[in-house]
Design a protein that fits this description.
single chain, 313 residues, Spore Coat Polysaccharide Biosynthesis Protein SpsA, Chain A, 2 domains
Amino acid sequence: MNYSKVAVLIPCRDEEQTVAQVVGNFSRALPGSRIYVYDNASNDRTGERARASGAIVRREPAPGKGHVVRRMFAEIDADVFVLVDGDETYDATRAPELVAAIVSDHVDMVTAVRDDGGDHRAYRGGHRLANSMFNGAVGVFFGSRPRDMFSGYRALSRRFVKSFPASARGFEIETELAVHALQLRVPTAEIVTRYRARSAGSASKLRSYRDGARIIAFMGFLLKEVRPFAFFSFIGALLLVGALGFGIPVIIEYQHTGLVPRLPTAVLATGLVLLSSLSFVCGLILDSVSRGRLEAKRLAYLGAPGASAAGVD
């Protein structure tokens, strides 16, 4: 296969211990491809070592993987994009399979599902459990459950990349990629690949609790943007339950005595009913807006040529 129109994108921050090996591995796996390393405000020699290993090095000063991916997708043009972390935990030898799935099977995103082969140093139990829970939540909220939403190794088609809004700032970017694919209902695939532990001297940038909280908040944001009627209906239902909880005792007391001695409670219940109604109406209106935005995304997706049409073979 000709890989001259394949771009390997490697976002890096303080990965001087591993970036040269990653660049070399993907150069051998995808000969002729262009390899880009985006130095995300590193405090070490990441950029220097990447350049010495033959990569095209650019710098993104705003910290956060989302910022890097957004800039990569905007600046780089290719027919197939391979996005991979620079920590040498992913198997570069499987890259041709990921690219082949994009070109031959005409899918738009191929996710490398991580398999640690029993080495729990590579994929800690807590992270595995959290990944499974988030995958399940995406399945409930957005209709389909991915196997490994947080994988940092995937191949993407040109039309997927150029229609991707990329609003995330940090590690939430993987969530946004998965939801974008589900929202557009584009063809996707998953390939199980080996996942290795980090080499000595290399440290993860992931902060489990902080980044987990940010991912939860971002999933709520995406639910509001992608399925506003469900989001605001849920809020409206909670407000209605609260209104009934406060209002029913007042109504019962009025039926027995003809009096409303707890006037503030009655006013509160009425206000909650009004807010519940407004929430349902907002959901209906924003659902129409969301459908219009989805149509625009779909048109942007269809406006970009697929990999096979663009000449990757």
